[in-house]
Specification:
By secondary structure, this protein is of the alpha+beta class. It has helices at residues 44-76, 86-114, 118-133, 154-167, 200-204, 208-220, 231-247, 257-265, 270-306, 309-317, 322-338, 345-353, 355-358, 361-374, 385-394, 406-429; strands spanning 4-8, 15-19, 147-148, 174-178, 183-188, 193-199. The strands form two sheets. Strands 3-4-6-5 form a four-stranded mixed sheet. Strands 1-2 form a two-stranded antiparallel ribbon. A hairpin with a 4-residue loop joins strand 5 and strand 6. The longest helix has 37 residues, at 270-306.
């Protein structure tokens, strides 16, 4: 059982209630909200270098914060979530990337086929190799044991289809279950088939309405106008990333002889190419981030529509539980290694399912404030979690909940049981 001890804040003397399970902090002055960082380096030169790096990082964070807050304030006023013309410039930049790839390909073919000298043919062959390596990736679906078919999980697919129809998306082609504390949706290949990926640790900490909200958010990516997920921009981004990987100085051996050969031949122009690709990746991100983050907000609105605003907000709040989920996995792994027999996966899923209820309101508030302080987000492509929750409060929607009754929940859980057991064993033995 947790124990609480009355203490006082050392900064403002506010009376605090400490819980042995969670860090003690002050809600009045936010003392100890952010854990103390590592001690400064004793060497003066290293200390100055670290201070300069911290100052640069802080300036970068301030610029990102300004852009993100500008977008949030625009949406809070009622502007469109995805109405932004910067993506047009991003599309033009993507066209330039595709043009470079096409030029390398056609020029290399010309050298190989029409050139009469061996050196030019060798150069053409290298160009063809380069064009092959930096070609736009469309993604490939390789169904394996992590994929569930409609025959294996009819109730889960039926729920997904109902949610997809509610937001105006097409039925999903594949559902994949993973061991990640995350979920995603994407289209892959020339046929642009869709894959809904559900991390079972994330699914386990959600209630039934929050699971509907999660599906609503993910299917919202199919209809929310996110230009970054479109074939044109996304393929250009992957091509730029391939150029950047080839140009990275001191790149490690990949095991792929073609990649290793290309890296060896790019030794001389590598630094120039590295700098250029870094600048282009940064520019493409700046031109598309407003539209992309606006699309994330719109997906949150769709999640609130198919479940409820409260369910969508609480679903987003569970994103702050990542460290707690990792700790629960470590504890369960330690118990399974000490105990007799194989890993007790049922104990892990039981602990994860009760994780949300184990948090006190004070600890929830601490994590939300910490997210606001650090501008925490799922990744750099997402808006900060606390702003996503705030916008759902500022722009309420009229919900039309997708039905997901207890019988459906039981059927879905039964269908996920084999995958849950497999994923649990992987987590406890990994």
């Amino acid at each position: 059982m947790p124990t609480t001890t009355p203490t006082r804040c050392p900064d403002c003397s506010t009376v605090l209630e400490s819980d042995d399970r969670f860090p003690t902090w002050c809600h009045a002055c936010e003392w100890n909200l952010v854990p103390a960082g590592p001690a400064p380096a004793p060497n003066p030169k290293r200390r100055r270098r670290a201070a300069r790096a911290q100052a640069r990082d802080e300036r970068r964070k301030q610029l990102v914060r300004y852009r993100v807050e500008q977008l949030y304030q625009s949406l809070e006023r009622g502007d469109s979530a995805v109405q932004d013309r910067s993506w047009i410039a991003a599309a033009a930049l993507a066209g330039l990337v595709h043009l470079v790839t096409l030029t390398v390909l056609l020029g290399s073919l010309w050298l190989v086929v029409l050139s009469s000298t061996l050196p030019l043919r060798v150069l053409g062959g290298f160009g063809l190799l380069l064009a092959l390596l930096v070609r736009p990736r469309l993604g490939r679906i390789r169904p394996d044991h992590t994929f569930l078919t409609r025959t294996q999980a009819p109730a889960l697919y039926a729920l997904a289809d109902r949610v997809a129809a509610a937001v105006g998306a097409r039925p999903v082609d594949f559902i994949q279950v993973t061991d990640e504390f995350n979920a995603s949706f994407g289209r892959h290949g020339l046929r642009r088939r869709s894959v809904l990926s559900i991390g079972l640790p994330f699914w386990a900490v959600l209630t039934a309405p929050q699971r509907v909200a999660l599906l609503g958010h993910e299917f919202g990516h199919d209809v929310n106008g996110d230009h970054r997920r479109g074939l044109w921009l996304h393929s250009a981004l992957t091509a730029l990333q391939e150029w950047h990987l080839l140009a990275r100085e001191g790149g490690s051996r990949s095991g792929d002889s073609l990649v290793d050969l290309a890296q060896a031949l790019l030794v001389l122009p590598r630094q120039l190419l590295l700098t250029l690709t870094e600048r282009l990746l940064s520019l493409l991100d700046r031109l598309s981030v407003r539209s992309g983050q606006g699309a994330e907000y719109l997906a949150d609105q769709l999640a609130a529509t198919v479940a409820s605003p409260a369910a969508a907000r609480n679903m987003l709040g569970t994103l702050l539980l990542g460290p707690s989920v990792e700790s629960a996995v470590v504890r369960a792994r330690s118990r399974s290694q000490r105990g007799p027999g194989g890993p007790a996966t049922a104990d892990l899923w039981t602990e994860l399912s009760t994780l949300t209820d184990s948090l006190t309101p004070r600890e929830r508030e601490r994590r939300l404030r910490l997210s606001a302080r650090e501008f925490g987000a799922v990744d750099v492509t997402h808006p900060p979690t606390h702003l996503r929750i705030q916008l759902l409060l500022a722009r309420p929607v009229e919900p039309s909940p997708v039905p997901f009754d207890q019988a459906d929940q039981d059927r879905v859980e039964a269908e996920l049981a084999p995958a849950r057991d497999r994923v649990g064993r992987d987590l406890l033995t990994g």
